[in-house]
Amino acid sequence: MAVATTDPVSLLDAHLGAEERELLAECERLATGRLAPLALAHEEAGEGSRLDRELIGAIAEAGLYERLYRRDSDGGWAVRAMELCLIREGLARGSTAAETAFALQGLGSFPLLQSGTEAMVEEWVPRLASGAAVAAFALSEPDAGSDVAALSLRAESLGADGYVLSGEKVWISNAPEADLYTVFARTTEGAGARGLTGFAVPRESAGLSGEAIEMLSPHPIGRLVFEDVHVPTEAVLGEVDRGMSVAMRTLDLFRPSVGAFAIGMAEAALDAAVAHAGEREAFGGRLKDLQAVSHRLAEIATRVQAARLLVHDAARSFDRGLRPITQVAAMAKLMATEVAQEAVDAAIQVLGARALVRGHLLEHLYRDVRAPRIYEGASEIQREIIARTLFDQGGRS
């Protein structure tokens, strides 16, 4: 006979298994207790736009990167989308900087895991898992952000001698200090998405340079310039002219987890608003007694949980081997990132001016929550993906 529970927190997590709930709680504890102080010290030192290798090392010591690089019994990579989502959600509740450092390592290295040679994997994965090396996903360009088919970074073939890369990448997380870049370049002109190829390019490659870009939120993001950068044939990720499929398989895995990152921020904001509304005396009572406040937070809580369930459903679909999951991944990212922006904004409205003071949790979240609606495909692109699939299928069938 099932035992009834009235604990609202456990009910919100009732769709998760015991190990999943523990992983989520463990990551939140790690972020709050160990990682957040490291990230804060790095930012206060004015180093927010540079790689925080101490933070990356602490994440590695906790074993989180090793979860990205486990092999299954068949020798393949055992990374699970649901596990990725729970880690990102838990870390985001306590430290957005730690969450970002964890996620970018996976995003930058997954093309290597799925499509790199065994020699590449043996060279880089132990260093990535230990935090000794940092990876970056280099896709966006000045004139080709969400429009991946318009990428123009050129890869000129030298036959058996490899390729020469020429052009520029921008808005690249972990640039220009990452140790390894998974780069997508054009190998066939005029072929759109069918003419792109992925390459693994080490930072020390001759002709590769870059600079940091100061952003609204202090994360390591920069520009890369390729001036006749030579890469060997062995650096190709997958097949020549099939780089779009390498990129999309990576994004299908990571887009739901971007939603999980957003959900973690939304939950942190909602918790702050609820705590404040329960304590703050105003107009002869507590803020929570004002229906305008309590009902607004009730609406936010409902939308956050709905988005959370959509994220988890997309992740479970990926883990069950359903392909393609492009539509549901787009739905999950779209809803979660949009709702998170709404949740943080609503929380700030409840706390008022104090939430806008530099260093306040909500001030920090307000700066961090904006970017996920753009990167890995802007919200408008997610709507386009969903709409195209909808009409290609003639509806929901």
Give an overview of the whole structure:
- The protein has 397 residues and is α+β, with helices and mostly antiparallel strands.
- 52% of the residues lie in helices and 14% in strands.
- A 4-stranded mixed sheet has the order 1-4-5-8.
- Strand 2 and strand 3 form a beta hairpin.
- Helix 6 packs antiparallel against helix 8, helix 10 packs antiparallel against helix 11 and helix 10 runs antiparallel to helix 12.
- The longest helix is centred in the middle third of the chain and has 37 residues.
- The two termini are 38 Å apart.
- 46% of the residues are buried.
- The model has no long low-confidence stretch (mean pLDDT 93).
Topology, element by element:
Layout: H1 8-12, H2 18-44, H3 53-61, H4 64-68, H5 81-94, H6 96-115, H7 118-130, E1 135-138, E2 154-157, E3 163-173, E4 180-186, E5 196-202, E6 208-212, E7 221-231, E8 236-237, H8 243-279, E9 281-282, E10 285-286, H9 291-319, H10 326-351, H11 361-368, H12 379-392
Parallel strand pairs: 1-4
Antiparallel strand pairs: 2-3, 3-7, 4-5, 5-8, 6-7, 9-10
Helix pairs in contact: 2-3, 2-5, 2-6, 5-6, 5-8, 6-7, 6-8, 8-9, 8-10, 9-10, 10-11, 10-12
